[in-house]
Structures are given as C-alpha cells and as structure tokens.
Amino acid sequence: MKDFKSRIKAVVALLLATVLAALLLSCGNYVRVEGDLPDGYVPMPSGKIKLNYYIANTEQLKKAINDYVRVFQNKYKDVTIQTMLSARNKNDIATDVAARTVGDVFFLFESDVYNYAETQNALMPLDYYVEAYGIDLTNIFSAMLDMGTVNGKMYMATANYNHIIYYYNKDMIKSANLIDPVELQNMGTWDWDTFKDYCRQLTMIDENTNKKTVGCTLRLGYSAEYIPFLEGFGGKWFDTVEKKVSFVSDENVLKGVREMCDFVKSNCCKYAAVSQSTVATASVKETISQKSFAGYDDKTQVCFRAGEHDNMVTIGQNYEDAGIDWDVVAVPALPVHKVGTGCSGFAVYNGTKNPDAAAALALTILTEEGQRAYHGQEGGAIPNIKSLAYNDHYWRVPFTDRSEDPEYGKNYDAFISFPEADTYAFVECVIPPEIAEIVRKYMQNVVPDDVNGTRDCDNTLTLLEAEANQKWESIYTG
C-alpha cells in the first residue's frame, strides 16, 4: 500500500510540474536558466517589468524615454512597465547591479558591458530573442553590435551611434589656401600625413599682426583618441584569450604611441589633458606645448579639435556667435584606419523573472520605430540603424546640411563616415576593469612625460605592460 501511495504521489507531482511548465510557457514568463531556452520556445511578452533610466537629467531625455516606452507598449499591450527615471552616474548603476536592485531592463554605457557581462555575470544574453523578435541586425552599424557583444554573445542593445570627428575653423583653412578637408574626405585622401602637414602650415605667428594660430588641439590621454593609435599601425594591444596586453612587445602598438609623442613634439598641436583614471595619486601633467599654447582660443586660434556629435550644438553655436565659418570632418585615416566609437544602450538584468518582456523592451531600440521614438523627430543622437542614418535627415539639425547648402552647410556625413574603421572608445570595453584602470593610469601621462623628458614612452609602456599583465595573471591564478 505504501508503495502504491508513493507512486500516486510521484505521478501527481509530475502532472503538477508539467502543468506549471505549460502555464509558464503560455504566459511567456519562462525563467531563463544558465542562458538556455527550451527547443521551440516562442516568447510571448506579458506581465510587469521595471526599467531603470539613469540619465534623465534633462526634459529632452525624459521625453525620449517616455516616448520610447509608449511606442513599445503600443506594440506589446500585455506588458506593463514601471519606469524609474533618475539623474545618476555610473557608480550608482554599479551599486544597483551589485545590490540586485536594478530593474529588469536598465540603461548602461558601452564601457560597462564587458564588466557586467564577463566579470559580474549580471547581464542576460539577447541572441535568442533577436531572432525570435525578428530584429534585422544587417541594418545595424556593425560597431554598434560589437559594442554590446562580449565573447560572441549580445548583452546590450545599443541606442545610438557616436564616433570621434574633428571640428574645424574653415576661415583658417581658406586663409592658408588649403583644400577644404571635407573635399579630401570625399575623395578618400584625408589621411594622417595630410593632417600633420596641414597642422604644420596652420601653426604660425603673423609678424605684422602678431596673430598666433596652432594646427590642432587633441586629447591624446583620452582613450577614444589614443586607442586608434594603438591599432592604427597594425598593432594588437590586448588579448583576452592569452589574458595579456602588449604595449612594447607589439612593435606596432609601440609605433602608434611614439607617433602621438612625436606629433606633439613637432609643436603644432595643443595637447589637451584629460583624466580617465580613478587612482587617487594619479595626476594629469601638462606638456611644454600645452603651456605655450595655453592662451590660444579654441575657436579663433586653433584650427582642428576633436569632438563628438553631442558637442555639436554647443561648439557650433560658439563658432556662430564669434562669426566664424566652421564645419566637421572625419578623423584623418591612419595606415590602418581606426576611429574611436562609443554608444549607450539597454541591457536585461540576469536576474529578471520576466525575460520575454524585458528582452522585447531592450531590443525595440534596434527597430526603426524604437529609434524614432527615442531620438525624436527633430534631432537627438545619431541613429544606429543604417537606413535612418543614411536616408533620413531628421537627426541632421539644427544646422543646415551640406547637401542643402554646399558653401555654408555642415558635413553631417562625417558622423557616419567610414563605419568600417570604428573601434572601441574605451579600454574597459574589452579588458577587465582592474586592467583597464592600469592602462588608463599610464596612458593619461605617456605623452606629457615623453615630451617633457620626464620618462620616454618606451619606459612608460614597459611599466604599463608589466603591471597590467602581472595583475591580469593574479586575477585568474588567485
């Protein structure tokens, strides 16, 4: 009798488990286990999820996310979203992730993806849902897919496309009788050697008027601007398989850093100091040239300066207010063309209890309707979708496009030029945070130390490589 009752209990338990599984599947609330989904599973978004949006520091951004949520809910009517708006920083996001209080979907930067996905296992892969929801990845700029991918898995759906470009004073170009850089860009001849020659010709002191100008100002201690040099001569500065960095052992990486130092030593570049290190004892040093050009106005006395799309309204208006003709041009091509590129986007927390709905919300940003809602009809960031970036000019505001006004219009094409050259803007996108901090610590001063004669770049990079690799080894050996 006892054996019979045990069998009955086992059958009942099995039936209950089967019914429960069926209910979970029918409601679209399958709880993901170790990244796997059952064969033939069809997601059906429903239920409640929470969205953490950490950059709601302007009315425009609040409108952007609210419009985005509205478009999503028009399509997925069975999903209810609790939107948590705040104006916080990366440390606050990290705190919420560590405390497991972050939403099912949350906003993050490209520089966070590697750490959260690889180190903390805090992000849910989205690959299965990309296919299930019919997302066309061929219409997305490839770098935008790379920014959200770690070890072959997609963890972030990127929201925008943003790579480094150069703002420049067109009046200075005309006065020097030089060909407009945009014309060279369009001909495919806007390269690093040409840029250096331009900067030499544009750096001068007019003896009659005592007018002083310098070719450019660059932030060569900022990773978005120095990473292209690490890769621009064929170098490979990191290896996540061997778990090492190569700054002196790869001669092409070393060549790129030497090129930066030699350019600043040529005294036609106003070096701009930038700190990305959180090390308490770190300090950003000045170069001799930085001091000599310290009083030069970036609008009237500097021809080229690096920037991004989100600087355009402010920088452009400053030029306009000063009565200066200006434009933007692509970053000049190194021998191996590389351009520092970044973005932000949405990820799904690995502990979500509603992955179907959460994945649907995050991936909506990779659709035209999601992009239009988030970026608005009258501006916003550059869309990550090729069809919108190339064929729709809604984001090319507030200044007139060159296609409409060839003489005074702005070269918006610079912002989406040479996408095949895009590379990561931040070292922490591809290496562990502890290693990234060491790289940032040394790289923020490698040029000033070399130019000032404090320590040549070879020695700095030798120290960097030794410390970083020792740290990387200790992480995995305990």
Which residues sit in consecutive blocks of at least 5 with pLDDT less than 50? 4-35
Q: Tell me, what is the CATH class of the largest domain?
A: Alpha Beta
Kindly report the average pLDDT value. Answer: 89
Beta strand count: 18
The third-level CATH topology of the largest domain is D-Maltodextrin-Binding Protein, domain 2
Q: End-to-end span in angstroms?
A: 56 Å
Largest sheet: 6 strands, mixed
Radius of gyration: 26 Å
- Given the helix and strand composition, which structural class is it? alpha/beta
Overall number of domains: 2
**Helical residue percent band:** 40-55%
Which geometry do the CA atoms define?
globular
Number of alpha- plus pi-helical segments? 19
Going by CATH, the homologous superfamily of the largest domain would be Periplasmic binding protein-like II
Strand residue content: 15-25%
CATH architecture of the largest domain: 3-Layer(aba) Sandwich
Question: What's the helix and strand layout?
Answer:
Blueprint: H1 2-27, E1 47-53, H2 59-75, E2 79-85, H3 90-99, E3 105-109, H4 110-119, H5 127-132, H6 142-147, E4 149-150, E5 153-154, E6 156-158, E7 162-163, E8 165-169, H7 170-175, H8 181-187, H9 192-202, E9 204-205, E10 212-218, H10 223-231, E11 238-239, E12 244-245, H11 251-265, E13 269-271, H12 288-292, E14 302-307, H13 312-321, E15 326-330, E16 339-342, E17 344-348, H14 355-363, H15 368-375, H16 386-391, E18 422-424, H17 433-443, H18 446-452, H19 457-477
Parallel strand pairs: 1-2, 1-3, 10-13, 10-14, 16-18
Antiparallel strand pairs: 3-17, 4-5, 6-17, 7-16, 8-14, 8-15, 9-10, 11-12
Helix pairs in contact: 2-15, 10-11, 11-18, 17-19
